[in-house]
Amino acid sequence: MKRDFDALQLQARSALAAKDWRAAEKYISQVTRKDWFDLNVEFRTIELKLADPAIKRNPLVYQETMQRKDELLTQSTDAVEGSNYA
Fold first, then answer.
1. Does residue 59 have a pLDDT over 50?
2. Longest C-alpha distance within the chain, in Å?
3. Total Cβ atoms within 10 A of residue 45
4. Can you tell me the mean pLDDT for 60-78?
5. Exposed/middle/buried for 21, CB within 10 Å: 0-12, 13-18, 19+?
6. Regarding predicted confidence, which is higher, 82 or 31?
7. Residues 49, 26: contact at Cβ < 8 Å?
8. Distance of alpha carbon 25 from its chain centroid, rounded?
9. For 14, what's the count of Cα atoms within 13 Å in the CB-facing half-sphere?
10. Which residue of 9, 60, 68, 75 shows the fewest CB atoms closer than 10 Å?
11. Distance from chain centroid for Cα 23
12. DSSP string of 8-32?
């Protein structure tokens, strides 16, 4: 029924609930046309990723992740479903 992206978002949300940012990142990265809700899931994934001690110790990955976080904040303000990030 062309709901593949919804299924991927649900799998990413489930991984977030389990505190597994790697799985959440894998699922949400497969969504090619992200709406505000997908951006929110990806943002929460990045927040969880930034809390990982292994990421904190790697300055290059940490910087790239912070840049992606900033991009998501910008994209979410332009998303149709919401004008601010909550």
1. yes
2. 43
3. 27
4. 92
5. buried
6. 31
7. no
8. 6
9. 8
10. 60
11. 11
12. HHHHHHHHHHTT-HHHHHHHHHT-S
Predicted confidence (pLDDT) at residue 39 exceeds the cutoff of 80: yes
User: Which position has the token pair 């990955």?
Assistant: 61
> What span, in angstroms and rounded, lies between the C-alpha atoms of 65 and 84?
21
What pLDDT shows up at residue 1? 57
Q: Which residue has the tokens 């959440």?
A: 24
Rounded to two decimals, what is the model's pTM?
0.85
Rounded Cα distance, 29 and 34, in Å? 9
Compute CA distances 81 → 2, 4, 34, whole Å: 20, 19, 11
The alpha carbon torsion through 36, 39, 40, 43 (nearest 10 deg) reads -160
Amino acid identity for residue 31 in this structure = V
